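This part of the workshop introduces the protein records we will be handling. Getting from the letters to the tokens is the skill we practise here. An example says more than a description, so a record of this kind follows:
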Amino acid sequence: MKPATPPQRCTPDPVAAPLEFAMRFTSTPRGARLARRLVSHRLNEWGHPYDSSVNEAVTLIAAELTANAVRHGHVPGRDFHLRISEAEGALRVEVGDTRGERLPAPGPPGPEGESGRGLLLVEALADDWGTAPRSGGPGKVVWAEVRLPGAGGREPVRPVRSGTP
């Protein structure tokens, strides 16, 4: 007599786990630059090629948010935190810093001003963005979401490069 075999269970296909990358960076221009490069590399690994409009838009959003964290959210001795994730047809970028009292507010930059355009770019490229209190400590998280084409999102605006027609 053969031993009894357990019944075969029919299990549904597992739902794809969201993709996520998170890391702390020094609150310096070099840290912001490294964060931007890692976002672009990670998006390429997730199937959004370097030259795609999604990769370029999300990388530019990450660059602006990390630059703002360094410039406006810097507290000596404290790092900023970057998190990107892909789930439910959207890419989300979150940048946290320890300056909760300084919330971003887009506004028209002065005609001669060298800054003040970053949040206008984020607003133009992202489908949604905002701020939230940072969990587990003082500070804030500035986030932006880009819905992926084919998942109810629009094709992201391709950033224009100088010297390109």
Summary: The mean pLDDT is 82.
